[in-house]
């Protein structure tokens, strides 16, 4: 029985096609197949149909009569038909051969023609790629601007909250000084320790250290403070000299310059 789906169908030829017709048909499809989607099948067809012995074996295996092509090397009178024709038109000069038309040939033709059309419209393809690239660049720029805006906004908020915390800390230190001074008036000496209450949500805590005559009030910023202030401290030390008694403010080492209160310069 004849195999209706065979290499001749793909080429749009009959089993009586000459070697020249087979070679021309293969080259025609290759020229249109610019993306190489059919390279493998075309190579297989070429190996089978351009080798007389392999072609004879192929034809026998697919049910073709040797008489159909034994004179195939005679000169061809008419030129090879265009393999890319409408599916309704017969690919064969013999009407009886219409039964051999390959059902998938139209899909192969349309795919190759579409690929060919795309190759002839580089400007449209370039325009589409250019537009997509512009949108990508715009998207990246928007993300970058948003990120920078967020960072700037966070920096501004940190500075504002930090300055506010330092101003509040100086007020609390002044109140702590008054508390210690009242203690000295009532007891005649600087307290070794003294409870200076602060709220749980405050960005600092205050301690009094009178041991070893240090005579200090220490305000240390905690985890509630903005990150640049955390673990830094402001220390008020009571200075006693002849005809002078007062407080001296000292920031801790590496205290952020932008947050230093004027009193501690």
From TrEMBL:
UniProt cross-references to InterPro entries, sorted A to Z: Pilin, Pilin-like
Gene Ontology cellular component list: membrane; pilus
Gene3D superfamilies in the record: Glycoprotein, Type 4 Pilin
Record carries keyword Cytoplasm: no
Membrane-traversing stretches: 133-152
Gene Ontology biological-process entries: cell adhesion
Keyword Transferase in annotation: no
Source species, domain of life: Bacteria
Subcellular location per the Swiss-Prot or TrEMBL entry: Membrane
Topology versus the membrane: Single-pass membrane protein
Pfam families found in the cross-reference section: Pilin (PF00114)
UniProt keyword terms in alphabetical order: Membrane, Transmembrane, Transmembrane helix
Family affiliation: Belongs to the N-Me-Phe pilin family.
Protein name as catalogued: Uncharacterized protein
Lineage: Bacteria, Pseudomonadati, Pseudomonadota, Gammaproteobacteria, Cardiobacteriales
């Amino acid at each position: 029985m004849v195999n209706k789906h065979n290499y001749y169908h793909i080429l749009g030829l009959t089993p009586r096609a000459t070697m020249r017709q087979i070679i021309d048909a293969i080259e025609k499809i290759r020229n249109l197949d610019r993306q190489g989607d059919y390279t493998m099948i075309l190579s297989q067809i070429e190996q089978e149909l351009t080798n007389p012995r392999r072609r004879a074996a192929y034809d026998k295996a697919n049910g073709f009569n040797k008489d159909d092509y034994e004179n195939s090397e005679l000169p061809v009178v008419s030129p090879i038909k265009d393999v890319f024709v409408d599916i309704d038109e017969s690919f064969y000069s013999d009407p009886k051969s219409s039964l051999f038309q390959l059902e998938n040939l139209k899909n192969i033709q349309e795919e190759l023609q579409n690929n060919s059309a795309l190759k002839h419209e580089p400007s449209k393809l370039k325009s589409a790629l250019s537009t997509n690239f512009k949108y990508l660049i715009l998207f990246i720029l928007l993300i970058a601007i948003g990120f920078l805006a967020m960072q700037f906004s966070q920096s501004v908020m940190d500075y504002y909250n930090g300055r506010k915390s330092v101003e509040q800390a100086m007020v609390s230190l002044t109140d702590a000084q008054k508390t210690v001074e009242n203690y000295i008036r009532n007891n005649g000496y600087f307290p070794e320790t003294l409870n200076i209450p602060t709220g749980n949500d405050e960005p600092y805590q205050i301690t009094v250290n009178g041991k070893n005559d240090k005579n200090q009030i220490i305000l240390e910023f905690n985890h509630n403070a903005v990150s640049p202030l955390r673990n830094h401290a402001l220390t008020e030390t009571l200075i006693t000299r002849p005809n002078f008694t007062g407080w001296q403010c000292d920031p801790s080492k590496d205290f952020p310059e932008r947050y230093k209160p004027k009193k501690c310069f």
